[in-house]
Design brief:
mainly alpha, 18 helices, 452 residues, 79% helix, Growth Hormone, Chain: A
């Protein structure tokens, strides 16, 4: 795919000066090597993230039917969406620290098999309490997947490639929305009564099995590091090590935090955590309320709702790729993040003001999608500007854990406001305010590092 091939062949390799007659060849070899690594790792991790996001947000389609079967209100649905992040937040840092001990291969496989089994078990939910318990268990099972993969990728690619590589991975959110919506809608429209099961039960069953199978495949497909990759030559392994060592040397020279204990005392970690906290509000609006918004504007069939829900994600994917390319070309993260967050904020305002009209509502969701996806891809390059060494794994998980408190709060608050007002306007306006605050905080407080 272009996001993993052509995107990586743009800059020369960093490192010590080389003889003039050899430097060009080495630079070409470096780009070919990182392109080869990307082609090997990114498609598989991309598939994993697509499955991850489908299993996390398929509840937004399932609840269109099962809320009547288990007595679920709009407020209790919002709370159920949010409690997922209780387990997710509590276990994210321990999961990433465990990754350092047992390796990414076992960690990713463990997480995928467990979350697939828990997602599948959602088909047996019969009341609101069981719904809450299952959502918390799903959060525990998924904890550490995203920050673990982010850390894993930073251990393969030097800084100049990371926004492109991370955007290719984060593209999984968009593809999950583009494919997951229509697939979920089709299942809900056609599977009712199969073998005496409700359509929403088939939804959880059919979308819970693939991650278990892919997780088992991860055990033999993913290497823990370049050093253990049998498909890299000794010269390529040495090149990767030299490139990453160059990043580490520059980290020491520029005063980057290299130990987890020091990272806990760094105010920049908590500024980043707040920035990530605000992104999750856009994700909540897009991932958990888009089907409801689409139904409110007059689309009644679950199959058609699924098809229409793919449109914002498709537009968002294009916007994310363009924003990430521009960020890498300019080697600038702070203002790109802020602009994308403000774009998502504008989309939330549009959604709140015109949620009952089809075209403005879809346009608002599309702006939210562009801002959300682009912010997510660009954001994770910011901590790498001041973290390295052992600080990276733990601090990335800490930032993600604190930030995901927004994923706990936003659905519950938006769901409560929607239940009270019977429309999404109040929740959308609140999300817009939070996103604008995130844009300002990152733009102002991360300035010193961005301009060093």
């Amino acid at each position: 795919m272009e996001t993993t091939n052509g995107l990586l062949a743009q800059k020369g390799a960093a490192g010590s000066p080389l003889p003039a007659d050899r430097s060009g060849a080495i630079a070409v070899d470096a780009e070919k090597t990182f392109g080869r690594i990307a082609r090997r790792l990114i498609p598989f991790l991309f598939l994993c993230y697509v499955l991850n996001y489908i299993d996390r947000v398929n509840i937004s389609f399932a609840h269109l039917q099962f809320r009547a079967d288990i007595g679920l209100t709009e407020a209790s649905y919002g709370l159920g969406v949010g409690v997922f992040y209780i387990g997710y937040v509590l276990f994210e840092v321990p999961s990433n620290l465990l990754l350092r001990r047992i390796g990414p291969r076992l960690t990713i496989a463990r997480i995928m098999v467990l979350w697939g089994l828990v997602s599948l078990s959602m088909m047996f939910v019969q009341n609101t309490t069981q719904f809450y318990i299952a959502r918390i268990a799903l959060g525990v099972a998924e904890a550490g997947f995203f920050p673990g993969v982010v850390y894993y990728l930073t251990s393969w690619f030097p800084e100049r490639h990371r926004a492109k590589v991370l955007s290719a991975f984060v593209l999984g959110i968009a593809v999950a929305g583009i494919t997951g919506g229509p697939v979920s809608g089709w299942i809900l429209s056609h599977a009712e009564g199969w073998h005496a099961l409700h359509a929403w039960q088939w939804l959880f069953l059919l979308e819970g099995i693939p991650p278990v199978l892919v997780g088992i495949c991860a055990l033999w497909y993913l290497p823990d590091s370049a050093e253990s990759a049998s498909w890299l030559s000794p010269e390529e392994k040495e090149l990767v090590a030299r490139e990453l060592a160059g990043n580490g040397n520059r980290a020491g020279a520029t005063g980057r935090t290299q130990h987890f204990g020091a990272a806990l005392r760094s105010w920049r970690v908590y500024v980043c955590a707040f920035g990530y906290f605000t992104i999750t509000w856009a994700g909540s609006v897009l991932n958990f309320w888009a089907p409801s918004v689409i139904r409110q504007v007059g689309v009644s069939s679950p199959w058609h709702i699924g098809l229409v829900s793919a449109v914002p994600y498709l537009i968002g994917a294009v916007g994310m790729i363009l924003a990430s390319r521009h960020s890498d070309a300019r080697n600038e993260r702070r203002l790109h993040f802020a602009c994308c967050a403000l774009l998502a904020s504008a989309g939330a305002v549009m959604l709140g003001a015109a949620h009952a009209s089809f075209v403005p509502a879809i346009a608002g969701l599309a702006l939210v999608a562009i801002g959300y996806l682009a912010c997510t891809a660009i954001f994770w390059t910011i901590p790498a500007q001041f973290l390295s060494g052992t600080a990276s794994a733990g601090a990335i998980a800490l930032i993600s854990s604190i930030g995901q408190l927004g994923s706990l709060m936003a659905p519950a608050i938006i769901g409560k406001l929607t239940a009270i007002t019977h429309e999404i306007s109040a929740g959308s306006y609140l999300a817009a305010m939070v996103l604008a605050c995130g844009a300002i905080v990152i733009a102002v407080f991360m300035r010193e590092r961005a301009e060093r």
